[in-house]
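QA checklist item 7 of 12: single-chain prediction sanity check.
[x] sequence parsed
[x] length recorded as 329
[x] structure emitted
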Amino acid sequence: MFRFFDTQLTCKMHRLQLNFFFVLFFVMKAFFLSAQEPALLHPDVIRITAFNDTVLRNMVNTKQIYDLGLDKLPQIIFWRKIMNLSPDSGIVSLAANRTIYCTKLTTSWDLLGKQGQDQFRDSLRKLYVLGDSASVLFTKGKNDFYDAKSVVPQIDRAIPIFIHQGVDPFYAQAILLIESPGKVLKSNAGAFGPFQLMKSVAIQMGLKVNKHIDERKDFEKSSWAAAKLLRTICIPYTRSMLANLGISYDENELWFRLLVLHVYHAGAGNVAKALAATDLCEGGMFLIQKLWQTKAGAFGKSSQSYSQLAIAAFLELDFELGRNLSRIN
C-alpha cells in the first residue's frame, strides 16, 4: 500500500516537473519572440551585441547616413569633434558651415576677453578672406555630456515602445543620443527626463507632473509620452507643412525624419517660419542643409544644429560599437 502511494506521488511529481518545463519553454519562447519583435516589425531595426555584452540589443541602422555621404560634411565632422573634446578646450569655426580654423584652450580664450576675442575673429576673417559680417564662433568641447555607450540600453528599451505606438524608432534613438544621453537632467527651460519633455507637453501627453510626482523621469512612461508627441503632433504637422508647400515626401527618407526632429525641438510654428524663409519647393537633404543656415522666429543656432547633432551622434554610436572604425581626430 505504501508502495502504491509512493508510486502515485512519484507520478504526480513527474507530471508537475513536465508541466513546469512546458511552462518554462513557452515563457522562454514568448520572451525570445518578444525580443525579436522590433526587428521583425521595422526594417531599419537591427540586433547587435554591444561592447562586451552578450545580450542582443535593438538598434536603428545608419546606412542612409553613409549612402548620402553625410559623414563627410564639415558640420558633422565639427560636431563629432566637439563630442570627443573635453570642456577645457574649444574649437574656433565659421558659423555658416562649421569650417574648423583651430582648437584653443578654454582658459586661453577666456583670458582674451571680448575685445581680444573680436580681434582674433577679425584676424581670421582677413586670413581666410571672409566678409566682415562672417560669424566666427568658439565652441567648448562636450565629451562630459555626450556618451553614446551609456545610451545603448535605453535605446534598446525605447525602440519596442515606439514601434508599438506606430512611431519610427529612428526618433527614439536620435532623441536619446542628443537630448540627455544616459542622464536624467533638467534644462534651463524646464525640460526634463531622457526625452527632455516640457511640463505642459508631458501633461498634455498624459503624464503626471506636479509637486508630488514627475513621471518624466520614469523611462517607460517618458518614452511612451515622447512617442505619442511625435505620432500626434510632430509628424502630422510636418506632413501638413510640406503639403502646404507642395513638397512631396517619403517618411522613410532621412531628410523627412530630420525635419520631424526639428519640429520636436523647435516647435512646428518656428520650423514653418524657417521653411518659408528657405523659399524651397522640393524636399531632400538640400532642404535640411538650407535649414542649417536659416534663422526665422525662434529658429536660431541651437535649432539649426539639432539635426547635425543627431547625425553626428549616430556616427559616434557606430564608432563606439565598432561598426564604423573611422574616428574623427
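[x] summary fact logged: DSSP finds twelve helices and five strands in the chain.
[ ] second reviewer sign-off
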